[in-house]
User: Which sequence fits this backbone?
């Protein structure tokens, strides 16, 4: 970044970053269909290679030996590859949360390095010897958002991994604490922008901003319950993008600015889709507390009769059906029943039964999670349908096979305004001629709401572990 | 690639907006591109979308490289090296796990197409 570089070299570098940004856009564009997605991913890798190569080619970096840099890349790369290869698909939400935390922390470290040694970033004002004003705004915002992303993602990771209770942790006066902390951070940014050397208790404002943001990220996520985690992961995805964009402004780097904007809007859209899938407003998710107090409401369950069946009954009904729609939920993945389920579907198809899968937007623990779990079990993706594409078909379907799902099928969401899940879009499984409901017991779902579907006349409950039950059905189909 | 304060930037080229405004232009347009591209992503691929956005946002490694590349062995350089390693975990891990997931998405084997899918 020295002034000695020729204009042609600087322009070539900028063009390389532009090309990288275009390749990243193509990577996301490829995801519009599974057929083009792999090519898209390759475009993304190429873009990354180009951006890294263009940066390393800078004389300022090149001149001082590349060994430590390559060692750091190799160390991180090996860890990343090993994790990517070993991670079970059920653990994807935790993995993504952990990856978000790394982006956040990297943003904080880069902003801190820019604060300590602005010369290597070319952000010093030649006249005053201080960091230029615009860069101060960008780097403090980048650092703050990065810190929030980091500590928030760590909490999300701990909750998803089960290392921390999924129940919301509600501090007294948490909204007031958060508000005061937010004001403190904003005041710190203003002070830093006004005067680079501004300090409180001898510590520069920049560090106060970063530290305050770490704390607020932590406080913002602990009150959010497990049921809302899909929104939280998407939201943190968005934050990691905005943090990257903030650093991109500091560096004047097109690739980073464009990527930050892409990732930021991607996460925001996914958060919106998840909120809509649960009929929750974004603000009520952020405010937290959902999934805790409702558990008590479930005790008011009536002792109504339910019809229970065996695997043999289920096999008979399935074999004689013309069409079956499978409704999988996260419980199926926990029981690792997806492979047995696919085997069951294969046997039914041999009998001439049409088999389709219906996926609710919040069926898994992150956007699209259930689709990945089914794909892993070799379920062809063109047999898997989204809620709005298949919901009308239940009325003409012989059997709805619900496995590991509960709240997303609950008709109370449509009929009972007092229900906590009222207004949430649900799969109309009750309209099928027969509903087979695989479940451990009559216990309510995640949201703590009783499901009237259990007591419906056309419902047959199949009590037991999802995997064992499906394996039994498979045996009876043979 | 020297940046100046808002307003002073145009001194040499009076007709040019300052670099910050040019960057803002790129940013705002990219938000719109992101909005339309992401809405066209099929919901079935939302998990790979999250893992790939994760990987590409690690292009922040560019900043880490600049921080690590300065002279001597300063704190800033060490922070840069740590940031490089963190971003590298994400880049390699993010792209690899995305590739692994995408490889699992298969179409229904068509009868008579010559491909024998299962059993």
Assistant:
């Amino acid at each position: 970044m020295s002034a000695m570089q020729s204009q042609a070299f600087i322009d070539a570098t900028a063009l390389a970053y532009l090309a990288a940004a275009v390749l990243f856009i193509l990577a996301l564009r490829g995801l519009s269909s599974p057929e083009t997605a792999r090519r898209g991913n390759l475009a993304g890798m190429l873009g990354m290679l180009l951006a890294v190569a263009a940066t390393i080619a800078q004389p300022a970096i090149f001149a001082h030996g590349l060994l430590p840099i390559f060692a750091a890349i190799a160390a991180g790369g090996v860890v990343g590859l090993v994790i990517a290869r070993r991670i079970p698909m059920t653990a994807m939400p935790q993995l993504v949360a952990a990856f978000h935390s790394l982006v956040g922390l990297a943003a904080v470290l880069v902003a801190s390095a820019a604060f300590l040694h602005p010369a290597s970033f070319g952000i010093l004002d030649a006249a005053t010897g201080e960091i230029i004003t615009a860069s101060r705004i960008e780097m403090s915002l980048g650092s703050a958002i990065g810190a929030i992303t980091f500590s928030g993602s760590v909490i999300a990771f701990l909750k998803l991994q089960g290392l921390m209770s999924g129940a919301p942790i509600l501090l007294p006066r948490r909204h007031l604490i958060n508000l005061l902390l937010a004001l403190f951070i904003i005041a710190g940014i203003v002070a830093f922008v006004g005067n680079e050397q501004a300090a409180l208790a001898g510590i520069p404002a920049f560090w106060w901003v970063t530290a305050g943001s770490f704390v607020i990220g932590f406080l913002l996520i602990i009150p959010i319950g497990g049921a809302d985690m899909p929104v939280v992961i998407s939201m943190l995805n968005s934050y990691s993008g905005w943090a990257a964009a903030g650093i991109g402004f500091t560096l004047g780097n097109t690739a980073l600015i464009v990527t930050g904007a892409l990732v930021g809007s991607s996460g925001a859209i996914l958060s919106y889709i998840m909120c809509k899938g649960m009929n929750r407003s974004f603000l009520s998710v952020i405010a937290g507390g959902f999934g805790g107090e409702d558990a008590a409401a479930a005790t008011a369950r009536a002792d109504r009769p339910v019809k229970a069946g065996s695997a043999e009954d289920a096999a008979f009904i399935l074999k004689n059906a013309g069409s079956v729609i499978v409704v999988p939920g996260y419980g199926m993945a926990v029981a690792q029943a997806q492979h047995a389920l696919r085997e069951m579907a294969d046997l039914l198809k041999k009998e001439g039964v049409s088999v389709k899968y219906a996926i609710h937007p919040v069926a898994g623990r992150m956007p699209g999670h259930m689709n990945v779990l089914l794909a892993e079990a070799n379920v062809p993706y063109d047999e898997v349908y989204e809620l709005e594409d298949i919901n009308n078909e239940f009325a003409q379907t012989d059997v709805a096979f619900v496995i590991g799902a509960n709240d997303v099928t609950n008709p109370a969401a449509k009929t009972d305004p007092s229900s906590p899940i009222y207004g949430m879009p649900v799969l109309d499984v009750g309209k099928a001629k027969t509903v087979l409901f695989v479940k451990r017991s009559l216990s309510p779902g995640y949201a703590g709401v009783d499901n009237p579907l259990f007591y419906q006349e056309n419902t047959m409950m199949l009590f037991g572990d999802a995997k064992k039950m499906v394996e039994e059905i498979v045996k009876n189909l043979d | 690639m020297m940046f100046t304060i808002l307003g002073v930037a145009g001194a040499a080229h009076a007709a040019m907006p300052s670099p910050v405004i040019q960057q803002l232009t790129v940013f705002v347009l990219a938000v719109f591109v992101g909005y339309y591209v992401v809405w066209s992503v099929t919901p079935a691929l939302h998990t790979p979308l999250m893992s790939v956005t994760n990987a590409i946002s690690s292009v922040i490694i560019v900043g880490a490289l600049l921080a690590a590349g300065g002279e001597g062995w300063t704190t800033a350089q060490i922070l840069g090296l740590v940031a490089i390693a963190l971003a590298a975990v994400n880049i390699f891990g993010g792209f690899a796990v995305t590739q692994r997931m995408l490889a699992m998405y298969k179409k229904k084997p068509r009868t008579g197409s010559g491909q024998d899918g299962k059993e």
